[in-house]
TrEMBL record:
Superkingdom of the organism of origin: Bacteria
Assembly notes: Heterodimer of SbcC and SbcD.
Naturally occurring in which organism (per UniProt): Streptomyces tremellae
Family the UniProt entry places it in: Belongs to the SbcD family.
Domain Nuclease SbcCD subunit D C-terminal: 267-355
Function text: SbcCD cleaves DNA hairpin structures. These structures can inhibit DNA replication and are intermediates in certain DNA recombination reactions. The complex acts as a 3'->5' double strand exonuclease that can open hairpins. It also has a 5' single-strand endonuclease activity.
Residue ranges constituting the Calcineurin-like phosphoesterase domain according to the UniProt record: 1-218
Keywords, sorted A to Z: DNA recombination, DNA replication, Endonuclease, Exonuclease, Hydrolase, Nuclease
GO molecular function, one term: exonuclease activity
Protein name: Nuclease SbcCD subunit D
InterPro entries in the cross-refs: Calcineurin-like_PHP, DNA_Repair-Maintenance_Comp, Metallo-depent_PP-like, Mre11_N, SbcD, SbcD_C
SUPFAM superfamilies assigned to the protein according to its UniProt record, in alphabetical order: Metallo-dependent phosphatases
Amino acid sequence: MRFLHTSDWHLGRSFHRVSLLDAQAAFLDHLVAAAREHAVDAVLVAGDVYDRAVPPLAAVELFDRALHWLADAGVPTVMISGNHDSARRLGVGAGLIGRAGIHLRTDPAACGTPVLLSDAHGEVACYGLPYLEPSLVRDDFKVAAARHEAVLGAAMDRVRADLAARPAGTRSVVLAHAFVTGGTPSDSERDIAVGGVASVPAAVFDGVDYVALGHLHGAQRLTDRVRYSGSPLAYSFSEARQRKSTWLVDLGPEGAVEAERLDCPVPRRLARIRGTLEDLLADPALTPHEDAWVEATLTDAARPKEPMARLAARFPHTLSLVFEPERAEETGAASYARRLRGRTDQQIAEDFVAHVRPGSGADEAERAVLRDAFEDVRVDGAVREVAL
């Protein structure tokens, strides 16, 4: 049986205030085309369909279009809710939508009830485990601790119990949305540690043939049977080096797994550049980045004038500007106390001015203001001491 494994669409999300709705629509069109081209038996969507619990109307409309495209293509789809989704909202109409071959799995209580697919070699049981917030489901799963490993382990116990009652040779697939130990995160994933220790071991999924994971935005293989598809688009500059793709998975008659990556369309490349403003504006090696979305880190000792406007003249798609001045002054190795030792209050204050206004220390008039301020403090302190 052949699957197309994807996740983390985050419909409605923008990239540094740039709308990605057209790029998300292009991906979904690509997904349906790939499903047809490769004659897949099912599409697996492992959570975070939307970017937030109450998505904007345009994102809902795009999701509706995607459901119609998949149903029209005749490709069964199994989809779970992620930590960004509202499980109840996403699951509205699931029974009716299921009749069109789109199987939404958003109810934790249904973890042990699979979507049954079949091919020439028999049935494949697809279990959808929506994102399980430990504090909300611990009682339902009867676990002692509100921890991700505990509730996910209890859900998998239900999966294994159901699978054991099925005919011998029934193959199995699990969709889950979780942070599995060994995975590499990026900056754009929402932290799920609030519900206990965030990560769970891959061994929690033992006993099934393939695990289609969502949550981490980089495509990665934890084992041959446990994989993240990653997000189809980059949602932070930390993903600049990631290859965005889906997994095309072949599940053999005995449960053997073969998988290859299918590249997703890229709306615009990401580039992270670093240096002084003048160097960035003049360096010919940066020419390939002139049409990319750019994050520029400026290392000038003093903040240059109108840096964003000047960068945009060469890199018109600059979206993020970071200042990390490189100075020759003593840094981290020396303790704060050592740096202050032997210095007067006046000198410390002047050093602070030079630090927050790199390249331009206090002038004579400002030094005079500081001297007067410290003198007033000393006089006031002396008066208070006498009064006491």
